[in-house]
Amino acid sequence: MGKWIKRAVTALLVLSVLAAAVVYTGIQLAQRRMDRRIDVKVAPVAYRDDAQSLERGRYLFQSRGCTECHGANGAGRVFAEDDNGLKLAGPNITSGPGSVTVNYQPVDWVRTLRHGVKPDGRPALVMPSEDYARWTDTDVAAVVAHVRQLPSARGRGATLELPTIARVLYGFGQIPEAAEQIDHTLPPALPVAVAVSVEHGKYVAGMCIGCHGANLSGGKIPGTPPDWPPAANLTPGEGSAMVRYGGAEPFVAMMRSGKRPDGTAVSAVMPFTALAQMNDTDMRALHLYLKSVPPRSAGGR
Ligand code: HEC
Ligand code: HEC
Fold it and tell me: What does the alpha-carbon distance between residue 241 and residue 251 come to, in Å, rounded to a whole number?
């Protein structure tokens, strides 16, 4: 073997050993990160079962994304899968076989929904609790009321299979969980009147921040596969998607149909099955609010 070939082979060997060491370390760190305990102070919200709560709860469950990952019957559902080793499914949250909520107390629902932390203190990895963290007590009680009265169904725990690269990135702290994005010290949000108002729109837009970023300017959604499009800029700044939606009508039509005014399809990463269930007041309030936020350049999140 020539000297140069020998050197190249040695360099390649060293590099692959290093790469293997990084991957190995990343996977160990990921396991440790997933198993760590997060201590949050949680104020329970009392169970309710009045008709108004149940009605509101059903609406929230359908329009705020829960059904996309937990299924309309709450038994769990595969919501992301590809050929690179990604498979994600929400767990069974009814009281049937395979349930993860069968021993839940009022405080446990709040810990999961508002804080992204499971009853044993470990973080939820994928569930977008940052979208629900600012829900009012009334809305938390409503969605819990709805889930608790779902008929017992057979299901299983969550499926959380991630491609190696995603596990390594997670291990090295590059993919934040909901629990890390939430300010756990804030008191519950106070109710605002349900109306076509900027204030109510801001409340509804809470469910967009996990993907579009806390400032709604979009960008790559952390932890998503490379072929997923970046979330759009919802502020009026440079690169804004909202230039297509001057009036509320085309905005509402797109949110319900998944189609832009020119007929092209918005990526199915947007949870259109849920969004199609959102009522007119919430939609119009959202539009008003998005038109009122300060401009930011696309991708600043
Ligand atoms: C994008 C998918 C997604 C959405 C939307 C979602 N969940 Fe989840 N949920 C999950 C996954 C995945 C888990 C398993 C925990 C994790 O993330 O590691 C989970 C866990 C849970 C748990 C059990 C946590 C435990 O293990 O103790 C409850 C309860 C729950 N979700 C309720 C809800 C409700 C109610 C909504 C709507 C307000 C909702 N989820 C929206 C994906 C989702
Ligand atoms: C699960 C992630 C996710 C959630 C939740 C989500 N979005 Fe999106 N959204 C995206 C992605 C990704 C795109 C970019 C799609 C594309 O480029 O085709 C997008 C695009 C958009 C667009 C641009 C459409 C166009 O004309 O190109 C608007 C407007 C929008 N989202 C509004 C919202 C609002 C309002 C909410 C909350 C009610 C929301 N989204 C919730 C992921 C999400």
Answer: 10
Q: What does each of the 301 residues of the chain score in pLDDT, given as a tens digit? A: 688 899 999 999 999 999 999 999 999 999 999 999 999 999 999 999 999 999 999 999 999 999 999 999 999 999 999 999 999 999 999 999 999 999 999 999 999 999 999 999 999 999 999 999 999 999 999 999 999 999 999 999 999 999 999 999 999 999 999 999 999 999 999 999 999 999 999 999 999 999 999 999 999 998 898 889 999 999 999 999 999 999 999 999 999 999 999 999 999 999 999 999 999 999 999 999 999 999 999 998 8
In 3D space, the residue among 270, 298, 145, 138 whose CA is nearest the CA of residue 207 turns out to be: 270
Number of Cβ within a 10 Å radius of residue 226: 8
Binding pocket residue ranges, ligand 2, CB within 6 Å: 207-208, 210-212, 229, 231-232, 234, 241, 244, 254, 260, 266-267, 269-271, 286
Cα of 69 from ligand 1 centre, angstroms = 7
